[in-house]
Amino acid sequence: MYGPGAGAVPWTGRRSTRAEVAEFFGMLGDYLERRSFELLQLIIQGPDGIALGSTPWCSSSGVT
Question: What residues does each domain of the chain span?
Fold first, then answer.
């Protein structure tokens, strides 16, 4: 997972491990506000699954 961006944007950068990806999603809530979530596809294979969706975000400061 790679989110390009400047060092001043804390949630950007390369994420390779499960813990790093979890940290990425945890940080988003500190800086951004999710407006909604639209589930586009749910894929289940045995005990594993993934949800694909779309969600608009707004900065916590009110700037989009």
Answer: 2-59
